[in-house]
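Risk register update: the risk of archive-format incompatibility is retired. Evidence:
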Amino acid sequence: MRVLLMLLVLLAAAVQAPAGQNPDIRVSLDFDPPNGVHRVDDPVNPLRVYVVCDCFGANGGLSGAVVSFERTFGAAGYQQVALITAPHGSFGDVEDPYMGWVMASVECVYPDAAGVVLIGYVDYWYIGPPGYLRIVPPDLEGGLVADCDVEVDEYCVFMNAGVGVDPPPGDPDCECGSIVPVEEGSWGAIKAIYR
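Archived output:
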């Protein structure tokens, strides 16, 4: 019942979308977290793909997420496990190449020593041909995560996953604490603009 309540709160918060504690949060697909393995050429069955969040704010943790996927490699569905729910459970339909999750936890989940939270994984039975698994925006307001106060932030996609092919690129400028480029200038030049 508490998980259902958290799901409803997460979806309601998604409509209002106040800024949360994780403004730079990223989501990636990884075959071997936190080592950043985004491509495998000789997959071993079952092929496990983790959904990973990183770039948390100073007090950032995670209490929910909305994630959807597009799969192009040939595979028979095996299992899909959400790791941030209590208790851990399966969500979605792994046979559907456009599957998605809405996950919520009754407890806040904080990053591990490597600075990541594994929010779930999907096991596939790879049968070929090669292709990719890509994070795509859900039908809501885009990819959303809820922090420990159930405030919502949109995430950016850092990396996708490829099986026998290079993964599709993630979102441009999806870096931890993305630096906003500025023109270099002197204080005198700035004052001269307003004279």
